[in-house]
Design goal:
Elements lengths: L1 H25 L1 H10 L6 E5 L2 E5 L8 E8 L8 E6 L3 E4 L7 E12 L3 E7 L3 E4 L6 E2 H9 L31 H7 L21 H11 L14 H10 L3 E4 L12 E4 L7 E7 L5 E7 L2 E7 L9 H13 L1 H6 L4 E2 L7 E6 L8 E2 L9 H9 L5
Parallel strand pairs: 9-17, 14-15
Antiparallel strand pairs: 1-2, 2-5, 3-4, 3-6, 6-7, 6-8, 10-16, 11-12, 11-16, 12-13, 13-14
């Protein structure tokens, strides 16, 4: 008899909990509060010639988004609304060459009699419209940091199903919300070998670099992709006219935006240079287990506690604390300075793809990281 009463009470408690949850989540006040605490994430803005594309990840239950713009040295920090859209991407045309444009996005839902309830604003993002070339070195690195700390390394990620060329994500504008969703509950024990060829859930090294280049070359999805074998990628980009190629033994230094492809069978990797430090070590950005992150090499003499290592650790810990807590490895060995060929963008002359009005190629890693991150909230 007692067991039967106990079972009855369990059912009553379960019914009460379900009733409370249904009424709580359907309550307009609760829904309003929950939505107002949300904000657009994965926000990017990239100038491609005289167009600017702004993209962000969808916000749950949003009816639309408002995009606000400010132009440096013209509007004095004042933001004006430039669009109200139901999509999570916007392309603005005929922007002024040489000008810096800043944007923020906020979502809204419709409450009651057509009243808008707003989310928090996403982070402010900026981009420089190039005077020469398709885009700029700074835009390239700003694009490269967008998936940092929220995108896992997935073998085959960024490739098509046949594993022969760029896949859907690597030919799409903006970061994929699937990447963040997949990364959300992964633990420190994450092993990429258990998720091989789940191509829509993350990026491998060459898929990541191809995605970065696609996003400074295009404003539309589904155009020609740039994903090639990691060991061939740097040389291939040189053959496409993006810049000059040097074999590993010919390299004398590293500059912002350099693309480095392994030239040996033991590495099979490709990465992007953020900048070189005074001690010769290099801060880089790449997709390598566990995912997309900043890393730092040893010095040319092999010293592990290099300036690049300390910088990578500092920025990952400060701006991506939850990621860094799970995946604190940011050091990279001497092979990164000896086993890789180098493609350097043409920033002067006739065939310019990425120009460098910000002088990134003349800055060291410390200066570049400060410029990329200062004033940003991730």
């Amino acid at each position: 008899m007692m067991e039967r009463n106990k079972g009855l009470w369990n059912k009553v408690w379960l019914f009460c909990i379900i009733w409370i949850m249904i009424n709580l989540f359907s309550n307009p006040c609760y829904a309003k509060t929950a939505f107002s605490k949300a904000k657009p994430v994965g926000v990017m803005s990239t100038a491609v010639k005289t167009d600017i594309v702004i993209s962000w990840e969808p916000v749950s239950n949003a009816a639309g988004y408002e995009v606000y713009e400010s132009v440096a040295d013209i509007q004095g920090g004042y933001y004006r609304r430039v669009c109200d859209t139901s999509k999570n991407k916007l392309v603005l045309h005929n922007k002024t060459a040489g000008s810096v444009y800043s944007y923020y996005v906020r979502a809204y839902r419709i409450q009651g009699k057509g009243k808008k309830v707003y989310s928090r604003a996403g982070k402010v993002v900026s981009t420089t419209v190039p005077q020469k070339g398709v885009s700029t070195i700074k835009n390239f690195l700003q694009t490269a940091i967008a998936p940092v700390g929220s995108t896992m390394y997935v073998w085959g990620g960024g490739w098509n199903k046949a594993d022969t060329a760029a896949g859907k994500e690597a030919k799409s504008i903006g970061v994929s919300s699937k990447w963040r969703a997949f990364a959300k509950n992964k633990r420190a024990s994450y092993n990429y070998k258990n998720y091989r060829y789940q191509i829509h859930n993350g990026l491998d090294c060459s898929g990541y670099v191809g995605w970065c280049i696609y996003n400074v070359m295009n404003t539309k999805n589904g155009q020609k992709g740039y994903v090639y074998s990691a060991s061939k990628q740097a040389k291939k980009f040189s053959e496409l006219g993006f810049g000059s190629y040097r074999q590993a033994r010919e390299i004398t230094g590293y500059k912002a935006g350099d693309i480095m492809s392994s030239t040996c069978s033991c590495c099979g990797h490709v990465w992007i240079v953020v900048g070189q430090c005074d001690d010769g070590s290099v801060v880089l950005i790449h997709s390598s287990p566990a995912g997309v992150q900043l890393s730092g090499t040893v010095t040319p003499a092999g010293r592990k506690n290099s300036e690049a290592y300390r910088l990578a650790k500092r920025y990952m810990k400060k701006y991506y604390p939850s990621w860094y807590q799970k995946y604190p490895k940011v050091d990279r060995g001497s092979s990164y300075l000896s086993h890789y060929g180098q493609m350097r963008w043409n920033t002067t002359g006739k065939n310019i793809i990425l120009s460098d009005p910000d002088g990134y190629q003349d800055k060291d890693a410390k200066e570049i990281l400060k410029d990329l991150f200062e004033g940003s909230s991730k």
